[in-house]
Amino acid sequence: MPPPDLLKQPPKLKGVFLSITLPSGAPATDEQVERTIIQGLHTMPAFNGRLRRDEIWDLTAYLHTLK
Length: 67
Fold this sequence. Notes:
Layout: H1 30-39, H2 53-65
């Protein structure tokens, strides 16, 4: 049985930039999304050193298309 603090489903990212805040409560800005990708948050692993800067920018740009 998974620990109780793990989400049963990942947060929905569709329309993530249409809201004022991210599912974590942080501001829905490119900078915050990139920081979350790099540093990780809660059960999301950090991708620092695993993704190049341009890949992080591409991922952030892709999230903007999910409406």
